[in-house]
Amino acid sequence: MGKTASTKLDELLNCSFIILDKPRGPSSHEVTAHIRKLLGVKKVGQMGTLDPKVSGVIIVGVGKAVRLLRFVDTDKKTYVGVMRTRKTPASLEEMQAEFDKFVGKITQTPPKESAVAKRARRRKVYELRARDIVVNTTLFESIVEAGTYIRVLCEAVGRRFGEGRMIELRRTAVGSFDEAQAVRLSDIADAVWQFKERKNAVPLQKILLPAQKLLHLSPLYVADAAVDAIGRGAPLALSGVTGAEAGIESGSWVQVKTKNERLVAIARIEKGQIWPKVVLEDAAGLR
């Protein structure tokens, strides 16, 4: 017999992700706190903080998925922004020529507003494109390594034109997850209302994505009988594996699942054994 709607929703509230379109205004912390209250859960967290004045895509973990955020593919971030310079570039081509100097590995020091240590660090700029220019205001798009400060990048580019400052910014994608997949806070509120007032769980189930959908780790399947040991954090010999993708090597991170696709743990393959690092389920949880 299939799972009831309420059972499936309970599982998602216990461990799932939300691809959120954060609005301008609130901080990332305020947004996650609001989601926690809307969903009535104890834990909500996010990967990839956005400043209050910046909108766009952030990945939100619900319940146990907060512990899995570091395993989501968030290495590349895509932004669309507006930069204003003191002097007016002669053309879009001149601005692009300056942008091209910052493609590749760059060194940045986080701005004073950031909460991280103010020491120089290397980051990679994959693409930096000038899309349009009106007098001294440039619309641009960038694809950068996680942890790159676009505000600092604008200041560096702008020195060629007397001064440069970012005046607007939106994150349009995190890894392979873009704004077309993202939901708004109002969508979450509406879905919660649908469930509470009309007993319709479908809208909320569409918003809460199973953890496996966002984790870019190879699956490794184990028998139900092995779950209890994994739940205690004990290593499992590779002989206890019932199925796996080809090419999983020592040192790899994997998703440990049961045959019915239940996510049990995130583990690392070391010395011919599976070592659980983040345990999500035990034998009792499968019953």
Briefly, what is this?
The chain contains eight helices and 16 strands. By secondary structure, it is of the alpha+beta class.
Properties at a glance:
287 residues; alpha+beta; Pseudouridine synthase; Archaeosine Trna-guanine Transglycosylase, Chain: A, domain 4; 3 domains; 8 helices
What does this structure look like?
The structure is a single chain. The chain is an alpha+beta fold. It has 3 domains: 5-73 and 178-212, Pseudouridine synthase (2-Layer Sandwich), CATH 3.30.2350.10; 76-171, Alpha-Beta Plaits (2-Layer Sandwich), CATH 3.30.70.3190; 217-286, Roll (Archaeosine Trna-guanine Transglycosylase, Chain: A, domain 4), CATH 2.30.130. Helix content is 24%, strand content 37%. The protein has 8 helices and 16 strands. Strands 1, 2, 3, 4, 5, 6, 7, 8, 9 and 10 form a 10-stranded mixed β-sheet that branches. Strands 12-16-15-14-11-13 form a 6-stranded mixed β-sheet. A hairpin with a 7-residue loop joins strand 2 (44-47) and strand 3. The mean pLDDT is 92.
Within the CATH hierarchy, at the fold level, what is the topology of the largest domain? Pseudouridine synthase
CATH superfamily of the largest domain: Pseudouridine synthase
- Inertia-based shape: globular
Q: Which CATH architecture of the largest domain is right?
A: 2-Layer Sandwich
Termini separation: 14 Å
Low-pLDDT ranges: none
Instruction: Say how many strands there are.
Output: 16
Count, helices: 8
CATH class of the largest domain: Alpha Beta
How many discrete structural domains?
Answer: 3
Instruction: Tell me what portion of residues adopts beta-strand conformation.
Output: 35-45%
Can you give the helix content as a percent range?
10-25%
The major sheet is characterized as: 10 strands, mixed
Cα gyration radius (Å): 22 Å
- Strand pairing plus helix content: what structural class? alpha+beta
Order of helices and strands: HEHEEEHEEEHEEHHEEHEEEEEH
The average pLDDT is 92
